[in-house]
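PROTEIN ENTRY
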Amino acid sequence: MHGCIFLTAIPMSIINSNTFLFLIAIFSFYLAFAGMRFAKNRKGIATTIDWIAVSLMILSGLGMWALAITYFINDNSQYITLLVFGFIALALDTETIEATRIKQQQEKRELQSI
């Protein structure tokens, strides 16, 4: 279901030249996708698709900050929303990367102790 919303939001944001909607669509999709992936992947070992999703979220967060600067310069009050969502995006990704790194170290230690 979350994929359908994402797949309709992206073309709509491109057709309307709405960068804000585009970045929010990526942000929303990542949250739903990551929740699904973490629910299915109990070991917490990241796969290639997980790293692609994390990379897109990092780019989205940075894009939100860049757009927030543009909005601030142009007196558009949406810059506040973009700053907050950009911060959340980057904070979530930092936490995800750190958790994955810890899981990989634990797995490496377990393999060495065998």
Observations:
- The chain has one domain: 2-113.
